[in-house]
Write a structure and sequence with these properties.
Layout: E1 9-15, H1 22-38, E2 47-52, H2 59-69, E3 73-78, H3 84-95, E4 101-104, H4 115-125, E5 129-134, H5 142-157, E6 166-173, H6 174-180, H7 190-197, E7 201-206, H8 220-234, H9 237-266, H10 274-306, E8 314-318
Parallel strand pairs: 1-2, 1-4, 2-3, 5-7
Antiparallel strand pairs: 3-8, 4-6, 5-6
Helix pairs in contact: 9-10
The structure holds uridine-5'-diphosphate (UDP) and magnesium ion.
Length: 319
């Protein structure tokens, strides 16, 4: 089944302290939306939604200004910083039912927004999900590239199905969005959830450029937390690993026990040394703490999920 030729498109941009770049992104994206409308590729009711993720700079003032400048712009402001994934969730829930398809993209427009046209083409062919896949990682620092690639490999080992080099630049149809909004989880890893939706999915390739202004809002701490969330929200391999390690150590201890018994009973060089007493203690202590820590991580997740607190509050909205 193919989709509408002229869909209402909602483009969502989560923004956290983006005053330095937002004006530029707004102009470029507005022009692009107007171009798409003029070329008859999207409906004139299409719009751009800026989600202010509790910024402490002039981001919200700028968004308000944009909404006054153009009918095509809408904005919502979260009451505090909730992180990129939650901001995106707020945007996605907000546009659900008001568009035929939506695209999410970073506010710094590092991802080539011109790929939206290619996404729309795939959507019109009938795809419900179109993933943006980056061509290369040349614009990234060595550190970012290395950590990102290792991360994909690690996720794969953990049995988590995510698309290589796909971040949060993607198109979802109304139908896919309808499935997405039913996921109630707090420990959000959107790209993992999108994989669970299971509707016809296409890929579109795009280039990434360097950030033109401002700094990355993904601090190392946020990045690590996000990476860890991805693993612990989608994989129980770390828990299984504990069992495996425990089993291996159990086997080794049986071996050591038999050896000790044999030495004590059948040889005369008994008097076990200090090392053989203390080393296993250190080792076991370490393994046990690690195991408890990992279990704790999951219990922490369960704790935040069962509280069912609201994900975010929309303090103001201009729709
Ligand atoms: N972002 C957000 N809340 C946060 C951190 C980031 O909404 O707490 C947004 C940010 O404004 C941007 C997107 O997430 O639109 C990606 O962030 P950034 O470009 O800084 O990350 P990088 O490209 O360096 O990975
Ligand atoms: Mg960026």
């Amino acid at each position: 089944m193919s989709h509408k030729i002229k869909p209402i498109l909602a483009t969502i941009l989560p923004c956290y302290n983006e005053e330095e770049i937002l004006e530029k992104s707004f102009k470029a994206l507005l022009l692009y939306h107007q171009e798409l409308i003029e070329n008859g590729l999207i409906d004139a009711k299409s719009f751009i939604l800026f989600v202010d993720d509790g910024s402490v700079d002039a981001t919200w003032q700028l968004i308000k200004k944009f909404t006054q400048k153009s009918q095509l712009v809408k904005g919502i402001k979260l009451s505090r910083n909730q992180g990129h994934q939650i901001a995106l969730l707020a945007g996605m829930r907000s546009v659900y039912g008001k568009c035929d398809c939506m695209v999410s993209i970073d506010a710094d427009l590092q991802q080539d927004y011109r790929a939206i046209e290619k996404m729309l083409n795939r959507y019109k062919e009938g795809y419900e999900i179109v993933l943006g896949i980056r061509n290369d990682r040349e614009s990234d620092s060595f550190f970012k590239r290395f950590t990102a690639e290792s991360y994909y490999k690690l996720m794969h080992l953990m049995g988590v199905d995510i698309e290589f080099n796909h971040a949060d630049f993607r198109l979802l149809s109304h139908k896919a969005l309808g499935y997405f909004v039913q996921f109630p989880e707090h420990n959000l890893f959107i790209r993992g959830i999108v994989k669970l939706i299971g509707l016809p999915t296409a890929k579109v390739y795009f280039d990434v450029k360097e950030r033109e202004a401002g700094e990355s809002k993904y601090t190392l701490k946020k990045m690590l937390a996000f990476a860890w969330d991805g693993i612990t929200s989608f994989s129980i391999v770390p828990l299984k690993l504990i069992t495996l390690i425990g089993f291996i150590i159990f086997l080794i201890s049986i071996g050591l026990g038999v050896d000790a018994l044999y030495t004590a009973l059948f040889t005369n060089k008994a008097v076990p040394g200090w090392a053989s007493t203390v080393l296993p203690m250190y080792f076991m202590g370490g393994i046990e703490l690690l195991a408890i820590g990992i279990i704790g991580e999951y219990i922490g997740k369960i704790y935040t999920e069962v509280k069912r607190r609201p994900h975010y509050f929309i303090e103001e909205e201009i729709l």
